[in-house]
């Protein structure tokens, strides 16, 4: 206990000395002090003595807080979240302190990190709506910024995770999203960055050309890319620079936005906001439109999947349709229409037709479990062969009889 008290007193003493050094215009000494302290210790003292975080006007960060923001930004974000939870500094004031009104808000990563931290706990659902609107706007503007991929500087070792971990609005993404552009399967998210790979092909085996005195930039991680400017990248003939890189670092904002939209309680208002900000040429357009339409009009979402990635139909349906019979029947009818249309085309490939048929059979197997026999027979196409549908009809009858038997047994037990 005494050791902990001494540690706290030492930390407070260091912070006090840092304030004095700043007043004496000696920022280097102040930086050395704050860098010598562990994060938890600084957070504890700044939360306890929260006046250290704001200036006398209470409208700006103090000099100490500005120093921390520059050299220990994670500390400032954590402190502000704690002060929000203790009702000392609310979200609006914290955002003002973090310069939320700056012209290029999507470049202000401290505002982004603060909003992510607020949304990462179910205990803060009272601020979810406002925080979500602002964060979605930031994500969308960052995704639209095509030059951002060329300026990645991520040095995390592989593999790593970009999604915040908590019990709030961020949840696990649906696995089938890894198959939609710009991704090319789950392995593409953990592969070496395409921009990094192109750069290494275009330069000498010993290193990467740069403007540094040594002429090289050392990379800590395969995901790391540190060009002095986007113009320094030289694309090799093996890569089209117009194609988006599928690695996780180049798509961090898209991954986070997808995670937010996968939350079961995502509102229609949130979905409409994303669609309003969504342009056709934005990478990840299809996945975002499907996720949003699943909240607004599930038939549109189903149609998008069938027309663009019929091979993902069952994965999509199992994630989003649940046990809603109407939605499954609607999906089956979309597939029926698609199959009928394709069968009348002369240029239809056998493999493509097979994908639609596999999806149709998969959906039909679920519908056969959900409907009663008379209803199933009513929706089956009259032009289809009885041989094809007989197994599904039999399964439907068996399930119906089993349900009736279960009800009879239950009624006898209760009576």
Question: Could you say which structural class the secondary elements and strand pairing correspond to?
Answer: mainly alpha
The number of helical runs is: 19
Average of pLDDT: 85
Gyration radius over CA: 28 Å
Global outline? elongated
Distance from first to last alpha carbon: 65 Å
Approximately how much helix is present in the residues? Answer: 55-70%
Order of helices and strands: HHHHHHHHHHHHHHHHHHH
How many β-strand runs? 0
What does this structure look like?
The chain is mostly helical. The protein has 19 helices and no strands. The protein has helices at residues 2-23, 27-35, 39-48, 63-71, 73-85, 91-97, 109-119, 128-144, 186-189, 194-202, 252-261, 268-277, 285-296, 298-308, 313-320, 325-343, 350-370, 373-379, 386-414. 29% of the residues are buried. Residues 207-239 have low confidence and may be disordered.
